[in-house]
Amino acid sequence: MKITKHMAFVICLAAVGCGNERDDVEVKQGDLIGYGNCPPFNVDQACACTDPNGNGQCAVLTPATRFYANLSTFTNPDIRFLNDHITSISVGPNASLMVCKDPGYTGFCGRIGAGTIINNLHEGLGCPFGFRNFGFSNVCMDDTITSIRLDPTSYNCQAPGANQTSIFLDPNFTGDCVVLDVGTYRAFDRNPPLSFVLGAYGLKNRSISSLKNGSGVYSIWYNNIDLGAPSFTSVTNTTYTTMGSHDDWISSIQVLQNP
């Protein structure tokens, strides 16, 4: 029986606080958020910086890109520079982040909740050893983050929209999950261009164990990257509490509208 396949944990919760946030760092102006050296960003975006408290070089993470599967190979040099250099992060109230130490959402991972500010990823109990702080504060992921997934809070894995499919790391719709819009997701560790073509799907390779198709879409699952055979075509408006012989099998996936 599969219990878990990841080491994800809560870095900090907005309701609890991170223990080192500063109320004077983030300034909201209308629907835009200001944080340190970050350019003003929207409530469904986030900003990551190379130094504490929003200082150093900063870049905005957007839902248009969403799957930053490998910062070290990102085309945009401002994003690429963040690889293994992120020390502070501010997340808008309409987004959350999954951050991982290795490409393709592998290695040690943690979630940063909506509306959370972490002013210094190098502070907190256990940081000298790189261990978690039991969820009460942040963790020592300073200068270690290589992959990031931005999840809009409007996306609900348990109730995907008509034109969406949600994928889960564990059976029975549990564990880390991602809502996918219509598109082609060709490789777990590939950065997407526009329209989510050729990009990652937000979970590590061959890790999907349950799935939900919305009422207006079906999905085709592929055992290899780049839509490589063999494949399986799932049924529209259908839930898969387990994946049977396709458990931990998917390397690329298409979400397609019904004909």
Overview of the molecule:
By secondary structure, the chain is mainly beta. It has two domains: 143 residues, Crystallins (Gamma-B Crystallin, domain 1); 94 residues, Gamma-B Crystallin, domain 1. Helices cover 2% and strands 36% of the residues. The protein contains one helix and 20 strands. The strands form five sheets. The protein has a five-stranded mixed beta sheet with strand order 1-10-9-12-7, with no helix packed on it. A hairpin with a 5-residue loop joins strand 3 and strand 4. The N and C termini lie far apart (37 Å). 46% of the residues are buried.
Concise account of the structure shown:
The chain is an all-beta fold and 259 residues long. The chain has one helix spanning 77-80, and strands spanning 10-12, 26-29, 32-35, 41-42, 46-49, 58-61, 67-68, 88-91, 95-102, 106-112, 117-118, 147-152, 164-170, 174-181, 183-185, 210-213, 217-224, 228-233, 239-240, 252-257. It is elongated, with a radius of gyration of 18 Å.
